[in-house]
Structure formats: C-alpha cells, structure tokens
Design brief:
Shape: elongated
Order of helices and strands: EHHEEEEEEHEEHEHEEEEHEEEHE
Number of strands: 18
Distance between the termini: 90 Å
Helix content: 10-25%
Largest sheet: 9 strands, mixed
Strand content: 15-25%
Number of domains: 2
CATH topology of the largest domain: Pseudouridine synthase
CATH class of the largest domain: Alpha Beta
CATH architecture of the largest domain: 2-Layer Sandwich
Structural class: alpha+beta
C-alpha cells in the first residue's frame, strides 16, 4: 500500500541517478526500477525513502544531497545535445567540461542550431522547463532566404499545419532585411523536431542559420560560441518565478490536429434567411390597380447630405 505522504519515485530517481525527470520516467516504464524488491512501472509512485529500497538495473540507489547547479552554454554549430555520441561527434558534455557535480543539458537543440543551452543537476527544474504542459517560451533568431511579407509572418503568428498538426500561435518580428536575406525573431512554446525550420519552409523561406537566444526569462549573454557560465543569482530567481507563474496558468491543450480545426471557424452557425429574402422575385405581374403583387424588399434608408455619404464614394462619370 502506498503511503499518503512521501516522495515520488521519478523525482528520487532523477536526483539519485543524475538524470532528467523525463529520462527517469522512461527508466521506470521500461521496468528497470524496483522498489522494495518489486518492479514498479508507474513514475508517480509515492514511497518513503527511509524505508523503501530503490534499485536501478539491480544497483542500489542512495540520495546524496548535492548543491544544485545552474549554468548556460553557447552551443556552436555541429554539436549534438547529448552527453555521449556513438558516432564520435562533439557533444554537449564537451562544452562544460568537468564540474563538481554531473550536469545534463535541459532539452535539445538540433545539430546545426546554435545558441542558448541550459545545464543543471536539478531534475525537477529540467522537467518543468521541457514538459509541454508548462508551455515554456523559447525565442530564436532565424536568418532566412528572401524577405517574408507581413502576410506570411501573419501565418506564423496564427499557426499553420506542420506534419499534420497545427502549430500554436507564435510571436514573430522582422528584425532586418537586406541583400535577399532577412533576420526574423520567433518565439514559440513548443519543441517539436525542427519545428522552426519547418514553419519557415511552409511559407517558402528556407532557414539558413538558426540561433536560440532565450528560454523563458533567461537570455543568451556574455558568452562566445563554445563558452559557458553559471547563471547569476538574479537569473535563477527570475527563472523559478517564471516557472511558478506558468504553473498557475491553465494547462495548455497542446497542438491541434489539422482535421480538428473547422473551416471558417470565425463564422457563427448558419442562420435561416429572413422572411423578406424568401419572397418570390417580382415577375412583372400587376394587380388590378397597378400595384405589385410582391412585397418590396426593405432596405436601410439612406439619408442624403450635401457632402455625400462617405460609405459610398463618388465615381467620375
């Protein structure tokens, strides 16, 4: 029987094994974790750390308190956002080197995407920054081929179908345009694979370079490509305050399937025609005293004025 009060198994595993909360969830669901000798498959299982023995792949785990670390790195091009790579490519681990405590990257950046990459040993923080339900904003600057029109940028702002699923509304601003290229700032709260590149491809402007410049309130600053630094105390406080605000917001419904978006959603339900519109057209027949047998169609009375009606501009004859 689970205790009413205790610690969540995925949180404990994240801290004890030094992995992100999402990785811990996967380990538990794959059956690699036992609690008191019994295999557990539910990440949110509550238990008492002082009484329950937790093992990962048969190895006993113990929670050793450690100082939380929060840092940022400037990821250069051609770096994979993993701690190890079978193909021998440069990894995110090489950006931060050896620290007093093992840290891991928060989320991922594509192989050719540069910019801000956060690192921490706080699995709970990593979970809150990367899980879609929190809707953490991520801001990029894209160098694209050609100059997108305001109409096309409006498509990005409203959302468009990518891989059969509608994107959520984005914050988009044209920063500069010259010599057949443009620099566009785009802020999204999603993290689908190569989403920003696919969004610009969809409006006909290929991304030439892409750099992430902010995650929530944390902006890339005081770094050269390949460098890293610890977050300041002020930045850490702002980050946690931002996440607390996000948690109080209503949970996002997530991406919308294209088929679920009705056409003409701005239009209301179809209304029956007014009775005067259902009257038969004038056939030209006249009554005994010359009056029309049909009811004349009513219309708004237009009051003439000496200056004319601005709704109906005058045309030269």
């Amino acid at each position: 029987m689970e205790p009413k009060d205790g610690q969540r198994l995925n949180r404990f595993l994240s801290q004890a094994a030094g992995v992100s909360r999402r990785t811990a969830d996967g380990m538990i669901r794959m059956g690699r974790v036992t609690l008191g000798g019994s295999r557990v498959n539910e990440p949110g299982t509550l238990f008492d750390p002082d009484r329950g023995e937790v093992r990962l792949d048969g190895n006993l785990l113990a929670l050793i308190p450690e100082e939380p670390l929060y840092l940022m790195a400037y990821k250069p091009d051609k770096v994979v956002t993993t701690m190890k790579d079978k193909e021998g490519r440069k990894t995110a681990a090489s950006l931060v080197g050896s620290l007093s405590s093992r840290v891991f990257p928060v989320g991922r950046l594509d192989f050719h995407t540069t910019g801000l990459l956060l690192f921490t040993n706080d699995g709970d923080l990593s979970y809150r920054l990367t899980h879609p339900k929190f809707g953490v904003d991520k801001t990029y600057v894209a160098k694209v081929k050609g100059t997108p029109s305001q109409g096309k940028l409006g498509v990005l702002r409203r959302g468009l179908p990518i891989d059969g699923v509608m994107t959520n509304p984005a914050g988009v601003n044209l920063l500069e345009a010259r010599e057949g290229k443009a620099w566009v700032s785009i802020r999204i709260a999603e993290g689908r694979y190569q989403q920003v590149r696919k969004m610009f491809d969809a409006i006909g402007h290929r991304v030439m370079k892409l750099r992430r410049v902010a995650v929530g309130p944390i902006e890339l600053s005081n770094l050269e490509p390949g460098g890293w630094r610890y977050l300041t105390g002020k930045e850490v406080r702002e980050l946690f305050a931002y996440l607390e605000k996000k948690e109080r917001e209503p949970e996002r419904s997530g991406p919308r399937p294209v088929s679920a978006v009705p056409r003409g959603e701005k239009k209301g339900p179809r209304q029956p025609k007014p009775e005067w519109k259902r009257q038969p057209k004038d056939s030209g027949e006249r009554g005994p005293k010359g009056e029309d047998r049909t009811t004349p169609r009513p219309g708004p009375s237009r009051k003439k004025s000496s200056s004319g009606d601005s709704r109906f501009p005058r045309f030269k004859t």
